# Entry
Amino acid sequence: MDWPVQAARITLFPLLASGPSPRSALDLYRAIWGKDPDSFQGSQGGVGNPFPASMAQGVEGGIARICQSQPIRTDLTFGPVGTAFGADLVTIADTSNLHTQMRKVFDVVDSAFQGTPISRAAVYLQIGQEAPDFREANRRLASAAWRGRQLELGDEEDFILQFNRPRQDTSDTTVKLNFITKWSVERVQLLTFLSQFPAAAGTSQAPLVVEKIVPTIAFDNSNVALQKPFDPGAVPRMLSTLFNEFALQLKACNIALKGF
Amino acid sequence: VSTFKAAYILVSPTGVSLTQPPLSPQQGGEALGWPGHANSTPISLFPATAFSTFEFSGGRVAPVHATTSEPSIQSGGYRQLSETLDDLSSSSDDDEWHIDIDVYNTSIQVAAALCDKNIPAPHVFCHGPKSVVFDWHDGNHNLYLTIGKCRLWVAVSSASEITTRLELTDPMRNVAVDFLQGLQQSFVNRPLLSYDPQDAAA
# Structure
């Protein structure tokens, strides 16, 4: 069964009150991807977020890349490129390319975050697919249960199952790693704005709203925040450790994802 | 999960009377061993002139007279707190409210972390360019979180005494995140600042 990628993310958390805050999203985007973003937005705080934040975004190889810098976290998000028409759920088709792009970030993360003390790293991967109804959505999730364990689901709605399989880091046994897997059936609302079509007199400009039923599996791997910053070179190693676990988690769910 | 107060027990020498001169922000936070008491435990001092003198009595540190008459800026929420910190940072260098840009950046980071944990927004005041103080008050106690360029200190006081004070940002053991986790728990599970270190020690 095909499980395309909906989104992926790399997140770094600075150690509180221990050094410079993360750089702006513009600087980070340039440092990580070696080019200017397609767009950049900075704010001293806005609706929903009272603190300074910045965001830079661009597209590479059919994958949208978004760098979001906030005082307590920096997110590097990979997502599908939206389409101008239609109300289909867009996904990342080229998962090998996604894998490569995420891996490349690990190599430059130390230099990009120059001077910012990092105490926690995280990687996230979300896969999902449209289903015609809840019964079918549940059936698809059941087929991806952990190591074939039985999930008896019928037409229940809004199913959620999550667990964590933590373990100590093999390189430093004082560091605890969390490996979270979450199965859920999401209701996704897609809004389509038809602004490119001049409105005929008397016609509505309201967006089209389409609700999708999307069985989703998310993998959220991170280390428990350290009480001192990572040593130089340790952040890429930690990210690799967390990232490599995706392969095991996918296998446990009986899912093959090209590149992973 | 223990509350933040239970996680940090202040061990202080007992039976000592000591008058401590006011600390400048630059001096603040230095770990000091108390003279004449070889077995005493170094204590991180509250790095401010908020309490001008201290007197040890029965293992407690009591403010002889507080100088918190410095006006407090009421901050009704995190948006207002953020704007206040921005104003403090962007004021001119010779303004009495001015804070250094590094202090501003750290204070914004701490404020964002507090907000992230749904901890009620604190009041804020400052007393020099080198630090900012976040302050919560529950009617009986004050919790002060003093923020320097790269350091954090916490102090808990009642009207008559300081019951807890310590630094959260030892370079090898930064417990700021644990502290915020505990602080969040304390807001959820019990009245703020009702902690007695003696109870926790027991």
Summary: The first strand of chain A starts at residue 5 and ends at 14. Residues 129 and 214 of chain A are 5 Å apart (CA to CA). Chain A has a mean pLDDT of 91. DSSP finds four helices and ten strands in chain A.
